[in-house]
C-alpha cells in the first residue's frame, strides 16, 4: 500500500532540502542517492521523486514553492486508480520504485475474478532508455517460471502509449518481518532462505542476475511461500542474446541498494552471479543476527564504497546480542552462539568475500552448504580436513555396536538384490558388486581401534552418506545406495537425514528417468512419508500427488502400491483433521488390498490399524477396538511376537481399549507396547517416545498425576535430541506435564508448560487445527482450577466450537471439552449453564 504523506512543516523542509540536493548534484543513479540519504523513509523518497518528475515535466525551478497542495497535485496527475488497461481495472496504488509504479488491479471483463498487480512506467521517466529498460524487465519475467518468483500474467501498452505488465498479486510481508513473527527459530529461517536460493538459482540458470536482492523484494505469504519480486534492475548474463537488449551503462551510472550491494556494484564494475551471492550473504547475515554486516545509513556514496570494498565483515557469531537468542527461540545465548559459530559463520563470510571469484561459484553451492548445515553434514566453506569431517558424524551416544552395522549391510544388500530382480542378470551382478564394495568401504572408514570406543550405527550411516557424494557420476548406483541409507535413517527415527538421502536419490533418479518411472514413484512415496513424520503436511501431500500420478502411469492395475498411496493420502487427511475424508480413503485402501493381496499380512496390519485409529477418533470405539484386534493378529502373523510393527499396533489397540472403557486391559497393553519398543528400538527412538506420551495421556485421564508427570518428563528429555520441535509428542508431553502439575497444585509452573505447549501447537499446526483447539481446552481447564473463570470460558467455548466443527460432536476431544465446561460453570456458580452443557454429554459420562 502507498505510504500516507506527512505534511508537517518539518517534513516539507526536509523534502525541499533533498530535492535541492538532487538537482544540484545530478546523481547518475537517483535511486541509490535517495536510498543513501533516506534509507528508512520510503514515503519521503517517493515524494522527492514525484517533485523531480514535475520539475522535468514543467520546468519548475529551485524556487518553486513546495506545499501540501503542490505535492497533492503531483500525486493526482499521476494516479491511474479507476482506469482500465486491457482486461484489467486499476484499483489502487500499492508501491513506487525508481522507474515503476505498481497498482492493485482486478479483471475488468468479468470472465473470472482475479486479483493482480499492474506495473507502469512512472510518469516523468518516459525516456527511450527507460521504456526499453521497462520492456526489458517484462521480457526477463516472461522467461522465468518458478513457484518462488512472482509470475508475469499479461502485458501491453495503454491508450496514451505507456507500457505496462500484469503480475500475480502477492499478499505477503518482507522476509525479515515474516521470519520475526512466523518462523523465528534459526532452523525455520534457514529453510526460508533455501526457498530464496532456489528462486535466485532458477533466474541464474536462465542467465538472469537480479542485482537487487533485499527483504523488500522478497515477500513471504501467510502460508510460508517465498516470492521473489522486482527484476527492474536485473540483467542478462549474455545480453546480446536477449530481445530488446540494452546499451552498456553510460556515464558511470551505478544501480544498487547500498546495504545489499556487492563491492563490484558499488564500484560500478560489471556484475554477475557472484553479486547475487553477495547479496544473499548480507540477507542471511541479517536473518541470523538481526542486523546487516555494515551500518551504511546516512552515508555518502564515497563512504559506502570505502566501507563495502575494504572493510572486512564481522563474524555473525561475534555480533549476536544477548537478546537475540530469545528472538530466534534458541535455548540460550550460548547455544545460539555455538550454532552460528563455525559452519554458519563460514558460509556467510564466504558469500561476503570482497573478490567475486573467491565467493561461492553459484547460489546452488551456497544452498548445498546450508542444507549440509541443517543435516549436520560437513560444509564446503570449511575444508578443515579429516578431523572436521569425522567430527560431523561421530557422536558420543553409543547404542549399537559395529556388529549391528554389519548386520545392517547384510540386510540392505539383500534389499538391493531383491528390488532389482527384473533387470538383466549381468547389470544386476555388476551393480550389486558395486553396492557391496561401497558398504564394505564404508564399514572400514570409522576405525574403532583408533577411536578407542564402540562405533554406532548412526555414525556408520553418516560416513556412508558423506561418501555417497563420490557416486554422483554413477546415478543408478547413487540412487540405489542413497535410498537404502534413507530407509535405514527413517527406521532409526532420523527423519531429517532420511529426507536428505531420499531427495538426493530422487535427483539421481531424475537423471535416469527424467519423466519418472515406477522406481521414482516408490521413492517419492517414501519421501512423502518422511516429510509427514516431520510435520510438513502440505509438502508431503504435494509429493504424494506426484507419486500417485507416476504409479497410475507405470504400475499394473492391481499393484498393491496403489493401496499404499491411498493409505498415505488418508494419513495426511487425518493429520489435518479431515476424518471423514480419511475414513473414505482408508476403507478404499483396505478394500483394494483385500482384493489384490489378501495374504499380505504386513500391509493388512497397517491398514486395519490405520482405519481403527480413524474410526476411534470419530468416537466409534467398539468398531475401532475390533479393527485393532485384526491389526494385532495380522502383525503377529507377519512379524512374530517381538517386532516394532507389532509394538506399533499394540499402542493403538491400548488406546482403543481405553476409549471402550476397558481400563485394566488398556493399561496392560500400553505397558507391553512400551516395553517392546524399548527393547527393539531403544530408549531414544521417536516411536518409543510416541508410546510413552500415549501412556502418559492415559495416566493423566485416569488421574494418576504423578505417573503422568514422570512419563511426560521422560518424553521431554528427548526434545531436541531425537524429537524435533514439530513432533506431536513434544507439545503433548508439555501438556501432560502441565496438567499434572496443575492437579498437584503447582499452578504457576503448570501454566508455563501448558502455554508453551499451546504456542508450539499454534506454530506447528496452525491456529485452526484440532490439536491447537484441544490445547486451548486443556489450558482452559487449568484456568478454571486457578479461578480465572472469564479467561477459561473464552478458551473453552472457542475450543468446543472448533472441535465440534472439525472432529464432530461425538469425538473424545469434544466430549472432554464439554466436561470441562460443566466443571467451569459449576465452579463459577452458574448452574443453568452447567446443566446446559451436561445435557450434551453422553448418557454414560460420570
Which strands sit side by side, in order, in the main sheet? 1-2-3-4-6-5
Q: Nearest-angstrom radius of gyration?
A: 31 Å
Helix content: 55-70%
Low-confidence regions: 1-5, 57-77, 238-254, 385-408, 419-430, 432-437, 439-455
Overall structural class, as computed from helix and strand content, comes to alpha+beta
What is the terminal-to-terminal distance? 57 Å
**Sheet bearing the most strands, described?**
6 strands, antiparallel
Shape: globular
Q: DSSP strand (E) fraction? A: 5-15%
- What count of helical segments does DSSP give? 37
Strand tally: 11
Chain-averaged pLDDT: 78
List strands and helices in order, with pairings:
Blueprint: H1 9-25, H2 30-37, H3 42-58, H4 68-78, E1 84-85, E2 88-96, E3 100-107, E4 115-121, H5 128-142, E5 152-157, E6 163-168, E7 172-174, H6 175-182, H7 186-205, E8 208-209, E9 218-221, E10 226-228, E11 235-236, H8 263-266, H9 273-289, H10 301-310, H11 324-327, H12 333-340, H13 343-351, H14 363-374, H15 386-393, H16 402-418, H17 425-444, H18 448-451, H19 457-467, H20 475-491, H21 495-512, H22 518-533, H23 537-554, H24 561-575, H25 579-596, H26 601-617, H27 621-639, H28 644-659, H29 663-681, H30 686-701, H31 705-716, H32 728-743, H33 747-765, H34 770-785, H35 789-806, H36 812-827, H37 831-838
Antiparallel strand pairs: 1-2, 2-3, 3-4, 4-6, 5-6, 7-9, 8-11, 9-10
Helix pairs in contact: 1-3, 7-9, 7-14, 9-13, 13-14, 16-17, 16-20, 17-19, 19-20, 20-21, 21-22, 22-23, 22-24, 23-24, 24-25, 24-26, 25-26, 26-27, 26-28, 27-28, 28-29, 28-30, 29-30, 30-31, 30-32, 31-32, 32-33, 32-34, 33-34, 34-35, 34-36, 35-36, 36-37
